[in-house]
């Protein structure tokens, strides 16, 4: 593993849905300003792992977590940690784009408003900056008051990214952000990820091998709740050290 | 092939008289034929279900027609009605021996003279005095009373019901929800006469002591009691509206670092607004039409006043109190039916608007693609 600044350090993370163990003893380091892809067949625990990084699993009943997830040196599962504060720093993009039934402007301004920014001018600035970062500004700048649900699927997903960026997170978790989009919209999201990693640390779950190979710097292969292999993406896709990984990335199963 | 297992159509015919009827018409045909068949059971089931639903629809139409027909003579046909009254009055004395004294004749004359047609300005006057030598049929105080009591009821019920709905839909655990929702909905099952009785005996005294009121029974007491019967309606529909707000909105908001209450207040509640609005409209409709509670708790004086602590006589309570004592076919009788028609139109309009809001706005909002 190359040297780099560690943003999130996961130490022997275990997670259960009721009696069923979904994650077994996962340890990996997520590096700053890199894109880390999580791959593996359906039900392998990659989405669960992603959601464990900003405690979105708290919302599901009967979830039990053991082990440590260190963010800025603090275990986020420590009793003293406020999940709300954590999620301000670790944002999330979901598989299905989910803009609020509000205007485009209100969608992006929602987070800053929640944090108490009331000044119209600073809100305007944040909205414009976030939409520009999400490469959506030019397409929507003339109808910011239109409903967030009225734009196309790809635009909606970029709107969700802009909304997440507006609260200035440090890490962005993406749960198959392009799985419901057409190839053109997908490529736009991928370009965007490439741009965003300059400022943010990105963790992305994807079903699409090519996408993982294209956008990520590091790739983690999950299988049956375990981390099989974690390495530089190029290595995972060309000379993986574990046979199982090779079989998966070459499409022999999964 | 063995003859015993070959199936002739007669072999598969069901036993018993009823089954023979049900399968009437299909017996003769080849079992394997794809030809269209007539199935009596299917035909009957379809028609019976259709007829049943049509009957309930027809009931509404019939009630509608009846109420309006009885109210109509106010605006038309007064000339022949007067003759009917003068001719047939003696026959409607229910066993009393008609006396031909001049006294009685004078009284008839007086009654006759008072039976002038009711005009729209009469109806819009502010005095309701249907039983007097010169009856006054001003509906305004009654309408105001209904409005006043309904408004008080909804102003009390809506915040309680909506917050309760928000709590059950968003904050409560599954277990709490399972207890809370049915128990609030049970509130709707309490007979209104019981609520009215409670208001009349207990609530009225409390409120009088609390505010030091002059009148024990008044619009406010009625409104509070009415709120009890409106809460379950607003609660149930609001809860349904809040529950169908997609979980993805909640997730998105929480992932942005919003607290739970912020998510509930700024994302879930606005998203469910059309449904909640509809719930409030239906609540107003219920409050407007509710009779027994207001009849018992509001004092029933047809005062024309804006003061919420004075007795009132609502539209519905007027019908409830006076219909049993009115002369069949009399102007008073017709005016009561006019009130009925008015109530009908108001609640119908409120329900229609509410329905439109739920169907159109809510579904469009969450329908997605």
Question: What are the defining features of this structure?
Answer:
heterodimer; A: 254 residues; alpha/beta; Rossmann fold; 6-stranded mixed beta sheet; 4-stranded antiparallel beta sheet; 10 helices; B: 369 residues; mainly alpha; MetI-like fold; 16 helices; 2 strands
CATH C-level name of the domain at 140-367 in chain B: Mainly Alpha
User: Level of helix content of chain B?
Assistant: 55-70%
User: Which CATH top level class of the domain at 6-97 and 171-249 in chain A fits?
Assistant: Alpha Beta
Helix fraction of chain A by DSSP (H/I, runs of at least 4): 25-40%
CATH topology heading of the domain at 6-97 and 171-249 in chain A: Rossmann fold
Determine the number of helices of chain B (DSSP H or I, runs of at least 4 residues).
Answer: 16
Q: Which structural class do the helices and strands of chain A define?
A: alpha/beta
Q: Give the assembly state of these chains.
A: heterodimer
**CATH superfamily membership of the domain at 6-97 and 171-249 in chain A, which one?**
P-loop containing nucleotide triphosphate hydrolases
Beta-strand level of the residues of chain A, as a percent range?
25-35%
Task: List segments of chain B where confidence is low: pLDDT < 50 over at least 5 consecutive residues.
Answer: 79-93, 107-114
> Largest sheet of chain A, if any?
6 strands, mixed
Widest sheet of chain B: strand order? 1-2
Average predicted local confidence, pLDDT of chain A? 91
Please explain how this structure is put together.
The complex is a heterodimer of chains A (254) and B (369). The model of chain A has no long low-confidence stretch (mean pLDDT 91). Chain A is built from ten helices and ten strands. In chain A, helix 3 (104-114) packs across helix 4. With 254 residues, chain A is of the alpha/beta class. By secondary structure, chain B is mainly α. The two termini of chain B are 58 Å apart. The longest helix of chain B has 37 residues, at 331-367. Chain B has helices at 9-12, 17-22, 40-71, 78-88, 102-114, 120-123, 140-171, 174-187, 192-211, 219-243, 247-255, 260-271, 273-289, 292-297, 315-322, 331-367, and strands at residues 128-129, 136-137. The interface between A and B is medium-sized, with 30 and 23 residues.
């Amino acid at each position: 593993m190359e040297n780099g600044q560690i943003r999130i350090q996961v130490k022997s993370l275990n997670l259960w849905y009721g009696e069923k163990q979904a994650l077994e003893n996962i340890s990996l380091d997520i590096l700053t300003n890199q894109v880390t892809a999580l791959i593996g067949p359906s039900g392998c625990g990659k989405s669960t792992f992603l959601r464990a990084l900003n405690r979105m699993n708290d919302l599901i009943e009967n979830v039990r977590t053991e082990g440590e997830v260190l963010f800025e040196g603090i275990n986020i599962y420590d009793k003293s940690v406020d999940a709300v504060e954590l999620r301000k720093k670790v944002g999330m993009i979901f598989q299905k784009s989910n803009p609020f039934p509000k205007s485009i402007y209100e969608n992006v301004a929602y987070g800053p408003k929640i944090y108490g920014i009331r000044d119209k001018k600073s809100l305007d600035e944040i909205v414009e900056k976030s939409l520009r970062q999400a490469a959506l500004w030019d397409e929507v700048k003339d109808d910011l008051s239109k409903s967030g649900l009225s734009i196309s699927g790809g635009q909606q997903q970029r709107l969700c990214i802009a909304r997440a960026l507006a609260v200035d997170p440090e890490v962005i978790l993406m749960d198959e952000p392009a799985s419901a989009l057409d190839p053109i919209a997908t490529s736009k999201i991928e370009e965007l990820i490439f741009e965003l990693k300059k400022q943010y640390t990105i963790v992305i779950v994807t079903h699409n091998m090519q996408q993982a190979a294209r956008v990520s710097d590091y790739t983690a292969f999950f299988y049956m709740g375990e981390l099989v292999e974690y390495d530089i993406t190029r290595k995972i896709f060309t000379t993986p050290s574990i046979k199982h990984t090779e079989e998966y990335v070459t499409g022999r199963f999964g | 092939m063995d003859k015993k297992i070959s199936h002739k159509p007669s072999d598969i015919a069901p036993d018993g008289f009823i089954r023979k009827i049900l399968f009437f018409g299909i017996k003769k045909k080849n079992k394997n034929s794809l030809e269209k068949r007539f199935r009596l059971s299917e035909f009957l089931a379809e028609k019976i279900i259709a007829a049943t639903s049509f009957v309930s629809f027809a009931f509404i139409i019939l009630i509608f027609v009846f109420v309006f027909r009885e109210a109509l003579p106010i605006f038309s046909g007064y000339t022949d009605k007067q003759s009917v009254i003068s001719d047939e009055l003696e026959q409607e004395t229910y066993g009393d021996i008609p006396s031909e004294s001049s006294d009685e004749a004078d009284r008839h004359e007086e009654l006759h003279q008072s039976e002038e047609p009711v005009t729209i300005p009469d109806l819009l006057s502010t005095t309701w005095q249907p039983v007097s030598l010169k009856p006054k049929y001003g509906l305004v105080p009654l309408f105001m009373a209904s409005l006043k009591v309904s408004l008080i009821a909804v102003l009390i019920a809506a915040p309680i019901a909506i917050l309760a709905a928000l709590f059950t839909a968003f904050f409560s655990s599954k277990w709490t929800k399972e207890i809370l929702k049915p128990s609030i909905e049970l509130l709707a099952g309490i007979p209104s006469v019981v609520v009215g009785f409670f208001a009349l005996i207990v609530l009225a005294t409390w409120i009088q002591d609390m505010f030091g009121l002059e009148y024990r029974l008044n619009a406010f007491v009625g409104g509070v009691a009415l709120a009890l019967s409106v809460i379950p309606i607003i609660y149930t529909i609001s809860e349904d509206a809040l529950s169908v707000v997609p979980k993805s909105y909640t997730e998105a908001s929480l992932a942005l670092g919003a607290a739970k209450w912020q998510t509930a207040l700024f994302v879930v509640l606005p998203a469910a607004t059309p449904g909640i609005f509809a719930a409030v409209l239906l609540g107003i409709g219920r409050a407007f039409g509710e009779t027994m509670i207001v009849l018992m708790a509001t004092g029933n004086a047809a005062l024309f006043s804006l003061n919420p602590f004075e007795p009132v006589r609502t539209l519905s309570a007027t019908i409830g109190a006076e219909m049993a004592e009115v002369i069949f076919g009399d102007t008073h009788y017709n005016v009561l039916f006019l009130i009925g028609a008015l109530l009908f139109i108001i609640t119908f309009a409120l329900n229609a608007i509410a329905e439109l809001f739920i169907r159109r706005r809510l579904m469009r909002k969450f329908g997605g693609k």
